[in-house]
Specification:
The chain is built from seven helices and four strands; from the N terminus they run βαβββαααααα. The protein is α+β, with helices and mostly antiparallel strands and 203 residues long. The protein folds into two domains: 70 residues, Glutaredoxin; 110 residues, Glutathione S-transferase Yfyf (Class Pi), Chain A, domain 2 (Up-down Bundle), CATH 1.20.1050.10. The chain has a four-stranded mixed sheet with strand order 2-1-3-4, covered by helices on one side. The longest helix is centred in the middle third of the chain and has 30 residues. It is globular and about 45 Å long. The two termini are 27 Å apart.
Length: 203
């Protein structure tokens, strides 16, 4: 398999962590989605990463679709429960973590891609409020649990870890650890896993 992505995309990182946890061999193809000749456009009509190219040259895109597929490829370390409420809980954690990323990247785009006189501060503040609300919700839901859904490491923890790591990379001013000690404890635990170390984005 081949994975088209970038080293700083948190969505790509989520897929890479899953592949490392599942011990799935793949080739990482670094691509610049902003380039007119970006490789990903040949496999994903939306021109976005991550994009997984399978052995038969078929492709999957959107990190949530890709990780769900990858979890079915090997019985090693199942990351998503197969059905029921436990599965829904893991997917909800992934959704809120990805929501943090959506808001954060929206802020990055507004601040870095638009000319200064065209930027909308109200839009930026709205996205920032989403991040803060999501952090508060995750902090309270996690509580004293060892992992997001209880005692077992899952995709929920991977998604949350990648979201918090991205805040460290791009939004150090948020300093989320100060008011979210449960999340800080979780992040400290999962960030030392080999899969997270191997996919750490360049600073």
């Amino acid at each position: 398999m081949k994975l088209i992505g970038s080293l700083t995309s948190p969505y790509v990182r989520k897929v890479r962590v899953v592949m490392a946890e599942k011990k799935l061999e793949h080739e990482l193809i670094i691509d610049n989605v902003w380039s007119p000749d970006a490789k990903v456009k040949s496999y994903n009509p939306l021109g976005k990463v991550p994009c997984l190219i399978m052995d038969d040259q078929g492709s999957l895109f959107d990190s949530r679709v890709i990780v769900e597929y990858l979890d079915t490829l090997s019985p090693v370390g199942r990351l998503i429960p197969q059905n029921g409420r436990e599965r829904a809980a893991v997917k909800c954690w992934e959704a809120i973590a990805d929501g943090i990323l959506d808001a954060a990247i929206s802020i990055q785009t507004e601040n870095n891609q638009r000319e200064a006189h065209l930027r909308c501060e109200k839009w930026v503040q709205r996205q920032m409020s989403k991040i803060q609300a999501a952090l508060e919700s995750m902090e309270n839901t996690l509580g004293e649990q060892a992992y997001c859904t209880g005692v077992n490491f899952s995709l929920a923890d991977i998604a949350v870890g990648c979201a918090l790591g991205y805040l460290d990379l791009r939004f150090s001013s948020i300093n989320w650890r100060n008011n979210h000690t449960n999340l800080a404890r979780l992040y400290e635990k999962i960030s030392v896993r080999a899969s997270f170390e191997a996919t750490k984005p360049p600073q």
